[in-house]
Amino acid sequence: MEKTVSEAIAYRRSVRIYKEEAIDPAKVKECLLNASLAPNSSNLQLWNFYHITDKETLKKMTEACLGQNAAKTAQQLVVIVARKDLWRQRAAANLEYIKNNTNTFNMSESELKGFKMAQTYYGKLIPAIYTDFLGILGMIKYLIFQVVGLFKPTYRQARLSDTRIVAHKSAALAAQNFMISMAAIGYDTCPMEGSDTLRVKKILGLPRGAEINMVIGCGIRDDKGVYGERFRVPFEEVYTEV
Predict the structure, then answer these.
(1) Which of 2, 10, 97, 220 has the most beta carbons within 10 angstroms of its beta carbon?
(2) Mean predicted lDDT score pLDDT of the chain
(3) Which pTM does this prediction carry?
């Protein structure tokens, strides 16, 4: 029986040692399908998921993950990849979806206005934000937005570093969906920050524009797999009601 959301969140721990017990690749794939349903910026879905089950590839990945136990003992690995470089394709996919699933003949005036706004958003606004050249255009847009922001609220995340952060935030949301889904079916995970991302990209044959968001070890926790009791700073220190 699957856990509730709250139960899965409470159960999830970063497990660093796994049992030598196989897990079902099909179930892991289903959890990755849940990952693809995560909220993300502008619905651009700037991510790819690599599900590693091949033994030889797992060995190479263990080395790229600096030999840490969470990779060495994992039965499978999942690599969450941020793909800011795919913004054109993903924006075009959104536009195509909107066109193919909209009947403008039966629309009210407000619905037609929303349809045109969506077309403008993906056809003009997204390109205006994401188009860049060596970071120069992004900096120019950033400076313009700062001036506009003196007079009215405005979007400011226009630099190359800003749009990269946006893509990684979306990828991280997908990763969390995946890990909670795994916890719900009794599977364990460990998101690993420590890895040679260049080597990981070479192992997976990723293009230059792809960026590793995180590598996640997957398996069934060993009795010694969780390093200590969970610690969190007092909730009152991180919670503010405004």
Answers:
(1) 220
(2) 95
(3) 0.93
